[in-house]
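User: My instructor asked us to take a sequence, write out its structure as tokens, and then describe one feature of it. I'm not sure where to start. Here is the sequence I was given:
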Amino acid sequence: MPEDLRTALLEELREIAALPVPAFDPDLAGDYAETGRRLPYENQYFARRRHLAAHALVGDGAVLSTLIADICDEHSWALPAHWDDGDPAVCVDLFACETAQTLAEILNLRDDVKDRERVEAEIRRRVLDPFFESEEPFWWEERFSNWTAVCAGAAGMAALALGYDTDVIRGRVLPALQAYLFSFGPDGGCVEGIDYWVYGFGYFTYFAEAWRDATGEDLLAGTEAIASFPAHVQLYPRSFATFGDAHYNPSLPPGLLARLADRLGVPLPAIEHTPTFADDYCARWAHLTRTLEWGRELGGEIKPGRTLLADVGWYVERRVIGRRMWSLAVKGGYNEEPHNHLDLGSFIIAADGEQLLCDPGAGEYTAAYFGDERYEQVHPSAAWHSVPTVEGAGQQVGEDSRAELVYTDDGVDAYIDAYGDGALLRKFTWTEDGIELFDAGPEIVESFVSRIRPETEGDRATWTGERGTLVLHGVDPDTVLIEDVETTTHLGQPERLWALRFGFSGGLRFELL
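Assistant: Let's start with the prediction itself. The structure tokens for your sequence are:
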């Protein structure tokens, strides 16, 4: 890692370590059961992990030992939202596994940690024994998502750090990680979006490199398509397609990107901002330490180009029109994906990365967000994506609701079967100064969603952003309706979405200014 970047990161850690360790109220775990809100407990949980990492790398041994003892006293290392009907103390979730890995590697890093035997015993009791001694697979070993890679990878790294026999690790960790890889199609697309690519494939990569150090076996070989995903779905520096539970500007760990580029020769996304530790809300030890070890200056250039990830159903194209880089991203796939939204045929139009027509991405995670009322929540619902209703019906949930994307000479076609008896064809075609949209289907009511309030005049609607202006021609002024909703982002910040709706069936034209 270049010395100036490394120095900046270590200085940030020293500033964190100089602050008082934040208070921790275990009773906030009950707040989730009462209100369904996750953030009150999780904010303090991740603040404690942030201080743990800082003190482990640059802090005083006595303070570090006290902090580790407090973590060993926690009722559960898992988040309350993940507790099942069993004992929360031995709930093997994402963050229990991450905590186990973090503490195991700290024991190897620092010889001044007190009560080392107790720390190792807690790692084994809470995570490694339940995982390696269970005769039945955990659900995340059979339903493949970021959980599969994070839980198995972090537990595997903890076991390696504690000196477990590699045959034991091979028998339980490697099958889960191979299954995770097999969940990707040949195009390497991640149905969960860029954030969960960072999380899942990140932890796969971290374990793979630790495994290679221990055994010489290379688990990364052949994963080039998966490793190329960020470059394929980038709209602009600090801007990515936000389908599913994603964020437009995710924190991409420099260590992970550099390692994949160096080992696999894959293209890098264009990077203009080196993430700080504060950029990672969850304060993940694996991202931090691998960035300190592997990170380097990352360049990359955003160029015109197009990508169709046919297996996952994502299309992204960038074109220079006027003085700006315009991007069009279209969503296919099916309506039972991990972190699914009702968004088949939804699309993004962005000017220099600013989404003038947006995909809402991830909302605040609550009990309802992952419960039976998921599609009544703003961010996952069809009503707050740029998808129409067909014969008065919205999109239906389920694996049978699907959209296939097919390249054309100047764009992409989306064949959507997600409305019961009503089907929809959407044709996106680039022109010299814009994008044409042709919708074919019965009784269509259009819907276009943005964080910018549209202004209408006659048969035109205009969205004026900071980096560009989008003008829609073909609005039906007799049926036009503008709606808005106040909601909260993934981290609980307020935001407002606007929807332009009108009855129409046929051709529309977006002028890009």
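For the description part of your assignment, you could build on this observation: The chain has a mean pLDDT of 95. Try explaining in your own words what that tells you about the chain.
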